[in-house]
Structures are given as structure tokens and as C-alpha cells.
Amino acid sequence: MWKTFLAIAIGAALGAWLRWLLGLKLNTLLPHLAVGTLTANLLGAYIIGLAIAFFSSTNLSPEWKLLIITGFCGSLTTFSTFSAEVMSLFQNGRVVWAAGVISAHIAGSLLMTLAGMFTWQWFKFH
């Protein structure tokens, strides 16, 4: 059980650190779009797509899956920050920006997960 807790904790610490760094470096690039949050969500979606495909074809210990998917991707991606940023846009009357941010996060994350899965399949067969 301790290996499980440790795997999740290590992954979560690394994912949270990367999310913080992305926000620090990228969130000020555009006035109405938190680029760091979007990057964290899209990167996390891509990594989880890779991980899903990779772990379905390997016999690694379950702790690796917990470290990457539950720990790292779970703390890298952020639905709560995304929600707060969208609500702020709505409250400031920036409805079109809010709709664009919603679309970018949701559609982008789904497409990046799919891209991650396809990437693993491509590497697997080449």
C-alpha cells in the first residue's frame, strides 16, 4: 500500500510543480486567455492518451500507471482553475471569450488525448 501512496504522491508533486510553472510563465501572454492553464490541460490530455495506450500493452507494475495517470496527470490538469477562469470571463461580460476558452479546453483536451493514443500506436509499429 505504501508503494501506491508514494507513486501517487511523487506523480502529483511533479504534475503540480509543472502546472504552477506553466501558469507562472504563460498566463500573462494573452489578456483574456490563461495560456498556462490551457497548456497544462492539453499537455496532460496528450500524456494521458500516451499513457492509456502504453499501459494497455505493457506489464509494468500498477504503481507506474498510478504515478503517471492519477498522480502526474491528475495534478497537472486542472478543471477547477479552468472553471474559475471561465466564470471570471463571464462575470466581466466576455461571453465570446468564455465560449472560446471552453471550446479550446474541452475539444482540445479530447483531441490531444486521441493524438497521444495515436502517437503511441505509431511508435509501436514503426
From TrEMBL:
Biological process terms in GO annotation: cellular detoxification of fluoride
Binding site for Na(+): 74, 77
Keywords annotated in UniProt: Cell inner membrane, Cell membrane, Ion channel, Ion transport, Membrane, Metal-binding, Sodium, Transmembrane, Transmembrane helix, Transport
Entry keyword annotation includes Endoplasmic reticulum: no
InterPro entries: FluC (IPR003691)
Record family assignment: Belongs to the fluoride channel Fluc/FEX (TC 1.A.43) family.
Reaction equation(s) it catalyzes: fluoride(in) = fluoride(out)
Protein name according to UniProt: Fluoride-specific ion channel FluC
Subcellular location: Cell membrane
Main subcellular location of this protein, as a coarse class: membrane
Gene Ontology molecular function, alphabetical: fluoride channel activity; metal ion binding
Membrane-related topology note: Multi-pass membrane protein
Gene Ontology terms: cellular component: plasma membrane
Chain's role: Fluoride-specific ion channel. Important for reducing fluoride concentration in the cell, thus reducing its toxicity.
